[in-house]
Amino acid sequence: MGSTIGARRRVLDEALQCFINEGYEATTTALITERSGVSNGALFHHFPSKEAIADALYLEAIVSFQQGLWNLLLGRPRSLRAAVRGTIEHQLRWTEENPDDARFVYMRGHLDWNSPTRTELAGRNRELAEAFEALLQPLVESGEVRESSMLVITAIVSGPAHAIARRWLAGHLDGSPTDYLDELADAAWAGIRGQPGRHRSAVAHGARSARVTLELLDEQGEISARGETSAELAPPDGAARELAALGPADL
């Protein structure tokens, strides 16, 4: 039993180094067996193909990363700001502590659509997303967090940290990825909290006139007629009073 587990581990460890150093396409199962010191039979006993090895490595890395996020949630962050900072800090620190796993995840990008592992990973992703949604929902209802999809919130919180991690892994940054933690956390916090800032618009100070172009399309979608007219634009009911109450700092 122990030797079987040891063989599987050696295959994964050597395959990871081959994928990173030689490239995924250039890596063959023959190279993996040579580097790992296992027989063809032992390799195919655990993995039917090179793709299966890559899927196992990808899933293993994602599970490792997600465990840190679960630990963060189970620790019940004292505030949303602490949760945001903790999420980004884990992302950067995990990259620093697991550079080969991180390189492979970024290199692989995603699992193939027909991968058997995809279903398991989708379930894990969904469960984690639901846990974060449960954390955010009361804050959305209270207005502390801007209402957005988890896709957008994840992009705001994690997207910039991914960019820093990639550059650090490529050797383009000195020091540690966590050197950028404070700035990233502040930016993410500002990006998801409260209501979006109000911007000046053409109707900000009452009615405005505008030229309107009208086009008539035939059944084939071609323009059969075109005309212009003018119209008076005004804020909808109630909006005028709200706009009138705004000062220059609000716009």
Could you walk me through the main structural features you see in this protein, from its secondary elements to its overall organization?
It is a single chain. This protein is mostly helical and 251 residues long. It has three domains: 1-48, Arc Repressor Mutant, subunit A; 50-192, Tetracycline Repressor, domain 2, CATH 1.10.357.10; 208-250, no CATH class. The chain has helices spanning 2-22, 29-36, 40-46, 50-74, 80-97, 99-108, 117-142, 150-169, 181-192, 239-244, and strands at 208-217, 223-233. It has a two-stranded antiparallel sheet with strand order 1-2. Helix 4 (50-74) packs antiparallel against helix 5 (80-97) and helix 5 runs parallel beside helix 8. The protein is extended, with a radius of gyration of 26 Å. Residues 197-207 and 238-251 have low confidence and may be disordered.
Topology summary:
Layout: H1 2-22, H2 29-36, H3 40-46, H4 50-74, H5 80-97, H6 99-108, H7 117-142, H8 150-169, H9 181-192, E1 208-217, E2 223-233, H10 239-244
Antiparallel strand pairs: 1-2
Brief overview:
The protein is mainly α and 251 residues long. It contains ten helices and two strands. The chain folds into three domains: 48 residues, Arc Repressor Mutant, subunit A; 143 residues, Tetracycline Repressor, domain 2, CATH 1.10.357.10; 43 residues, no CATH class.
